[in-house]
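FAQ: What does a multi-protein file look like?

Like this. Sequence, then tokens, then the next protein.
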Amino acid sequence: MLMATAVRKEALLTPGKESLAMEAFANALTMLPTIIADNAGYDSADLVSQLRAQHANTPKCLAGLDMENGCVGDMAQMGVTESFSVKRQMLLSAAEAAEMILRVDDIIKCAPRPRRNDECM
């Protein structure tokens, strides 16, 4: 939630089409807790709404999903920490993969080259 909020704030300050891509990325980050809760078999709508409320009401909130108990918990108390270098590498790898997919899509969408008749003599 914190990363999605930060990306959304930066998107508001960014001009042009880049801001649309940043907003889509923020939306994708927002979907992660929903996907995690769904995969764990919990009510994702309830958990994510609780998580959003805690992040909205508490500055520097460290709340996250506690999948063992099916509730929102304090990640610091649970001992869940994330290394900056790991998070940075994860985001770089995801961005590179998305860029490669977009490049392949552009290649597939391109019209084929006009072919000329080669006459053999």
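And here is the next protein:
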Amino acid sequence: INYGILTQTSYKLKESGGRGTMTSTEELMVKMEEYFLANLTQKIGEFMSGEGEKVALVPLEEEQPIENTIVFKSYQELVERELTEFLAKEGIEEEIVVKMCMNDTDRSLVCVEYILAMTEYDSFMQLVADHVTCQQWEVGHSLEGDEA
């Protein structure tokens, strides 16, 4: 994972209950990844299987259907709720986490993908496309297994 310049930086957590501690970027990202995997992955899978099915995968340079924007906003609300809960528990400001995600050039963590898809329409569309591809692969893989 390449955190760029943020790797060398520690962030002071907001004073919370009299505790003010320091955490490294890596520690924060690992905590957030664990939280998202435990609390959000299934919800996003269910969201993509329901609302995500309404998204029309058209090239980004073309006019986007209004339904795509509506689904994007619903996705933002879903991730925002979970992110807000995590940040409140950790006493961290959202802007710090978003900056860290935007500077994560490897994008190897699930939480980074989910947060970027919340903040960037093109990342959201890529997440939807990835979900569709996975669904098609699972269906194709399942059919091949049935033929044997």
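Q: Is there any per-entry metadata?
A: Some entries carry free-text notes. For the entry above: Helices lie at 25-39, 41-50, 66-90, 94-102, 110-119, 121-147.
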